[in-house]
Amino acid sequence: MDSFPPSKRRRKSKEEETETSTLSPVVIFAHGAGAPSSSDWMQRWKNILKEALHAVDVVTFDYPYMSGKKRAPPKAEKLVEFHSNFVKETSSKYPDHPVILAGKSMGSRVGCMVASLEDVNVSAVICLGYPLKGINGAVRDETLLQLTVPTMFVQGSKDGLCPLEKLEATRKKMKAPNELHVIDGGDHSFKIGKKNLQANNCTQDEAEDVAVKAIAAFISRSLEG
Question: CB 3.0 to 4.6 Å from 126: which of 24, 102, 130, 200, for a disulfide?
């Protein structure tokens, strides 16, 4: 309960208001390999992140290969320049706000590559379904081991592209502060089967809400630290 009556509540000073607005991040959210930024999943998570992180904006974009005739994505390394240029352009529009890179699957991997660039200033990275395992089954941990910025992983326990034991081994070797939130029964897009939902006595929305709160807490600590 507020200790002041409504008419006598202490107003925030200009310094406090400036500090609060400065801590409001701009989130640059990259899509996965198969669906554009306009997909239902991306739009839903865009709104979720904006609200949970009190973001001044959540900006999405499409990699060039998404335009025109549908085709397979190029290697992640070939998307870094486009992604980094978009980050720099967006950052210049929000000069007083910390920049957070978020990504779905491939977008999170490219985002981690961008966050490691010397000429890009990023406060944190959010990886939603990081694709740790390549098509040939090899663990692709080089990108994560180069990171130095705080990194949050959200993974489904049934995500075939990221075996949790492999991710745990990688996290222990990472230089960057990092945390992992596991969505029990979730697949690569966090979709949980009915049996898992019934066993855990929860809904899809409730399971994702717990994940979102973990993301928000991690980002809050990262920005304040």
Answer: 102
CATH of 17-224, one of 3.40.1190.20, 3.30.70.120, 3.40.50.1010, 3.40.50.1820: 3.40.50.1820
Which 8-state DSSP code applies to residue 188? T
pTM for the complete prediction?
0.89
